[in-house]
Amino acid sequence: MKNRQTTERYTLADLENWQTAAGDIEPPIRLAVFGDPVAHSLSPQMQNAALRACEIGMQYARFHIRANELRSALRFLRDLDFIGINLTVPHKIAGFTQIDDADESASRAGAVNTIRVRDSRLIGSNTDGEGFLRAIRNEFSVDVRDLRVMLVGAGGGTGHAIAWQCALENCERLVLVNRTYEKAQALAERLRPYFAGPRVLGPAARLEAVAWEEAALRAQLADIDLVVNATPLGMNPSDPSPIPARLLAPHHMVFDAVYGPKTSLVRAANEAGARGANGLPMLLHQGALSFSIWFDREAPVEAMREALAL
Length: 310
Ligand code: NAP
Known about the structure:
The chain has 310 residues and is of the alpha/beta class.
């Protein structure tokens, strides 16, 4: 059976029997995204378009890997000649502890979304922060450094990367919100040195962790320009909006890292008369940066954008 089509989703069992599962696939699978859930991921269509545009004879595939399978799955990358992978929900923080080396972007965030295999070593990077920055610039024609940002989901891998990027940009103000408040508080302590200077006029503190409670959010949102969701809320059509429409106002820019036709947060933004954008542009830019890491060359961004119909 030559030129067999790739499967919609591979598993750890497939990695364990790779020759049977995918040994005859042409071009061979050498790149992947590991996640749980992973069926929603648009990375394969975007990265495969990039590989074709650059005439690289490889494919990128989806792998449904559960949290307790990550360590075993990562072990196969070296032996099966993978170039690298992306990690998505919920593996970014756990993945950081399971690699051989980390670059600065990954070490800072304590989270990994890109792994490259070099000389049998797994080297972790994080392109989410920079991808986020580019997405905000493209979608709203503003720079994060000029904004007062509220980040919901500050305890996760994506939340960490975005929070660190905001700190490095020295944004005007950063408010960290998380279901488990202690995680937002711990992150705020690590970021505090970046917000030592007095930049915001008025009484609002430049860096705060706040409880995920309506009254606290309402009070904070008066001094916020950009609201960011880095929780998975919105991945399912029935999910509630992480911030309800009644708390949003027309002056807010609302960015949902989740991508989908119209996420619950983007719908809430529209209802409130605010500008809203979903995570597709971030997916594009973080993916282009991952491609550059794997192949030491510029990514064909336009081919990737076209594949996402952006
Ligand atoms: P993660 O590491 O599992 O982080 C989950 C975060 O969301 C934690 O802060 C967690 O809070 C919070 N959370 C989880 N379920 C929640 C719920 N039901 N209600 C409230 N908070 C909840 O996940 P991740 O990898 O960072 O990914 C987060 C989302 O960002 C995913 O939907 C992913 O698809 C999206 N994403 C998009 C892009 C893009 O390019 N567009 C890039 C990266 C990620 P606790 O700390 O309390 O558990």
